[in-house]
Design a protein that fits this description.
alpha/beta, Rossmann fold, 10 helices, disordered C terminus
Length: 234
């Protein structure tokens, strides 16, 4: 495994352990792979950092074994992070949308930023020189949660449906926003957020509340949220 691949896999495993377990349970889980807990931990109060430190000295074979047990695809995890997330410790949200409505996705991205959420909007966050599909695959492989914006025409988009399938297969937190269409298929059974004439700021606040309630994502949010002032409509 190349150093960059190893780094990305440890990062993905650490994020998964953070979302699933308490400190004690992380120790118990990793002990099954022969990884001993530190006698004294003097690092920051972060389960992600803690897990990363424990995994740094583990062999490639053991990392792969842990990834298999946690049902994390090694081939996906070793993909490099997309540019927008390369230096970010924020919660990584993939925003699935259709191109004609990218303005709505961008408004949500900007409104979520003060809450410590780094949203990936494909039509805006991919550099012209980067292969489009590869960058989307990187974002899907490393996202912490997924938001689908169901404007009119979304259900007819093959790209959007494949992105949903990826999110469901990875078992990440999925949030659907109903803006003209009702979600169908795998995510149709989950209740969607209705637009109801609300502003992007109001919807973003509800999205953050849902993320903060889910054990898979809540620990990625900062303890304090940003200012929700300056409200503007979509």
């Amino acid at each position: 495994m190349r150093p960059s691949e190893r780094f990305n896999l440890i990062s993905e495993l650490s994020s998964e352990l953070q979302s699933r377990y308490t400190y004690d349970k992380i120790d118990t889980y990793l002990s099954a792979f022969g990884i001993a807990a530190p006698v004294n931990w003097s690092g920051p109060n972060s389960k992600r950092v803690y897990s990363s430190e424990l995994l740094n000295s583990v062999s490639d074979a053991t990392l792969s074994e842990i990834a298999e047990d946690l049902e994390i695809s090694v081939s996906a995890a070793v993909l490099p992070l997309p540019r927008i997330w390369s230096d970010s410790l924020e919660l990584r949200l993939f925003v699935s949308h259709i191109s004609k409505d990218k303005d709505k996705a961008l408004r949500l991205r900007d409104c979520l930023k003060p809450y410590g959420v780094a949203a990936f909007v494909a039509h805006e966050d991919i550099q012209p020189t980067v292969l489009w599909q590869s960058e989307i695959e990187r974002a899907l492989a490393h996202m912490h949660c997924f938001l689908s914006v169901h404007t009119v025409g979304f259900s007819a988009s093959n790209w959007a449906q494949q992105e949903i399938g990826f999110a469901v297969a990875r078992r990440v937190k999925v949030i659907s926003l109903k803006m003209g269409e009702t979600p169908t298929g795998f995510i149709g059974k989950e209740q969607a957020l209705p637009r109801r004439g609300r502003t992007a700021e109001e919807i973003s606040k509800e999205i953050v509340s849902l993320v903060a309630e889910d054990p898979r994502t809540r620990d990625f949010l900062p303890k304090r949220v940003g200012d929700e002032s300056n409200e503007f409509p979509f």
